[in-house]
Amino acid sequence: MSRRSVLRTGAAAGAGLAALGVGHGSAGAAPPPGPSVPGAEERTWPPRRGRSMMGVPFERHDTIRVGIIGLGNRGGSMLPLFLAVEGIRVTALCDVDPARVAAATRVVTRAGQPEPARFTEGPDAYERLCRRDDVDFVYVATPWEAHVPMALAALRGGKHVGVECPIATTIEELWELVDASERTRRHCIQLENCCYGRNELRALRMAHDGLFGELLHGSGAYLHDLRELLFSDTYYAGQWRRAWHTRIDGDLYPTHGLGPVAAYMDVNRGDRLVRMTSMSTPALGLADYRAQHVPAGDPKWRERYVNGDVTMSLIQTERGRVIHLVHGVSNPHPYSRLNHLAGTKGVFEDYPPRIYLEPDATDHRWRSWDDYQRHDHWLWTDVGPGPGGHGGMDYLMLYRLGQTMRLGLPPDMDVYDAAAWNAPFALSVLSVRYGGVPVSFPDFTRGQWRTPHPGTDSTKPG
Fold this sequence. Notes:
Largest sheet: 8 strands, mixed
Strand order of the largest sheet: 13-12-11-7-10-9-8-14
Radius of gyration: 21 Å
Helix content: 25-40%
Shape: globular
Number of helices: 14
Distance between the termini: 42 Å
Structural class: alpha/beta
Order of helices and strands: HEHEHEHEHEHEHEHHHEHEEEEEHHHE
Number of strands: 14
């Protein structure tokens, strides 16, 4: 992929945001009347051009041949984990930086695998990778603007594709991915590693076993002080991630918090996300950090930050449950995803983990989360964190992906999950712009959200 291609796809992403009324206009300008969300109501759903991918199994693979697009911070760190999964062979690599491709090639060959094909030149480099007949699954770990064109190229090339967060930034793009997955009969997956955390999977098992009673509400977040990394001249190539904070105001990274809570509540498997309201604080943190750490005359002083330091959202489901979603990366804060779940029999809160469930607890005092280890998911008891990656979440996510592809099982997460979990990116921007007005979620399943099908609460294969 070329830098010109990144800029071109970035412009397309901006145009998509503008189509939703959430473009790059002045933060002080009066918004145009009447927010709208294409595809939120049944009468506006794009017509289905293929067949549902809900519960569709992978074809069996003795060997899963993987092509990787993007070998920076995230892609480079995931490469050894792919190589550690049984049955996975990395056959193709692509990045705009030839040095990264060369280094990644050495990692592959040192693992005892054949030298992969390499793609570094030209705006169609990633497209050529996606057309290869020795690639079954494409992994995309590039700047956000490029996620959708790369995922679409993979699907059109007959490949299954997994994309880093967020999978898309506009509602139109999410519908594109749903439609392309249905037409091509290939899975398009948001690779949301937090759904495979030990605490998340334990809480999921307990929720599905009824220990929390009837579920009422939950919380998820991405609270991560990224200021040093955002202002680094080298960490994000071309400093692309900080640029998003100069464009729009909303929740730029919803899936780490929302994905696990949506799993607890069986979203797309008996419940669905219906409406969302969002509010943002003033955007002060990045400017304050710049004043303390960036010398006068640096080009960064020409930037105007508009994304609020913290965006808080409330999401209501069809069954009346409420999800509290938070995004904040611009201020001092110990890392937290909140990860909170409450029902009629009690509550779990993470960071630090603690629990209060009746009838075990009746004295209004928190109990130890460690007392509930017997509810751990089999991925943690029987497989374990392996070589790691965010404490083991990354490895277990790839392990499970490889397992479902080898055995010909449906994936734990499908394109409808990806679309629902990522919709708050665009919807929060729209709600913030209109003063917190409720905005409707599209039903990307087109009415099939009640259909039971596999999710992350999987049964261990025999």
